[in-house]
Design brief:
2 copies of one chain form a homodimer. The first copy, chain A, has about 190 residues and is mainly alpha-helical. Helix content of chain A is about 65%, strand content about 5%. Chain A starts with a helix and ends with a helix. Chains A, B: This is HD domain-containing protein.
């Protein structure tokens, strides 16, 4: 029996409940536990809502919010790839693309294609909307590390230079004024 | 020393990290633990993104998404008031209003007032946007209860009639077609 559009949409919304069980490297600011990818996505959408004036160029705030709401759902199939890990980028990209096709494929075709397109735009990071979204996705964990006294930088023995090279270009490209603040924080944190 | 706009915005974004520690009555669909209000807000924003075609009237999907992202942040100060509790509605409303003023008051004035207005619009539930947002905020926990075999209805000894009266009017008003599905689920669940 063919599923109705609504049945497909509800199946998708039930499936993505699992993003709440994907645990990231970053902790909450109170250090009580690690953050999960669903609450991280909520927080990033709030970052976009509040900080849109710092984007690199003219952006559509609501598209950025939508992008950030769904940017991590592929982690339901492939897990979180930490920024400081050594995993192969090629295999990660392939796995995430397959996951995106499976997940957005649960939706009615037109809606699924639209959201898959938005996810792909985020991944390619060529538009101003996507560049700003990517910048926030780097800015939030950096902020957490600074305000928890080091966080994943200490756990993974990350150096001052590595922070600059792993976060800097992406944050600076999408939100230069936010990177200026990061430079001050990171310099102070590492006592440079 | 006066804080800059950006300093205020970052203080707000750090403060709302605490929404991740507010635990709701509903569990995750896999029943592994209770849901928190931050990941609940993410999921509701996704519900709005996916289900906007079922709204009662002409809505602005992006305003609804924004509303749902921030609808629960007052719980940082006052906690979650469960739907099946006996708390006084008057005192709840007062406490939540004070919390909204404190939290949105952390932001630069104009931005804070805009978002406070959006939160108040949600609470008043008079516009189509707010009615649809309120409907989703009832629909999601109902779905969780149905797909976890009873959930909070069993824990709080909630009857068939109470489910109809506590969820029905609000879901039906904002999203009549979603309520039609709920009626089937709830009737089957209670074996009526």
């Amino acid at each position: 029996m063919q599923s109705t559009a609504l049945e497909k949409q509800l199946a998708f919304l039930r499936e993505i409940d699992r993003l709440k069980t994907v645990v990231r490297q970053s902790s909450l600011l109170d250090k009580s536990r690690k953050e999960n990818s669903a609450e991280h996505s909520w927080h990033l959408a709030m970052y976009a809502l509040i900080l849109s004036e710092y984007a690199c160029g003219p952006i559509n705030k609501n598209r950025v919010i939508q992008m950030l709401l769904l940017h991590d759902i592929v982690e339901i199939d492939v897990g979180d790839f930490p920024i400081h890990s050594e995993s192969s980028n090629e295999s990660q990209t392939e796995q995430e693309s397959r996951a995106a096709e499976r997940l957005f494929g649960l939706l009615p075709q037109q809606q699924g294609n639209e959201l898959l397109g938005l996810w792909q735009e985020f991944e390619r990071a060529e538009t101003d909307d996507a560049k700003f979204a990517k910048a926030l996705d780097r800015f939030q964990p950096l902020l957490v590390n600074v305000f928890t006294g080091g966080g994943t930088w200490i756990e993974s023995s990350v150096s001052f230079e590595q922070v600059f090279s792993r976060y800097g270009p992406i944050i600076k490209r999408g939100a230069p004024l936010l990177w200026a603040v990061c430079e001050q924080w990171v310099t102070r944190h590492f006592g440079e």
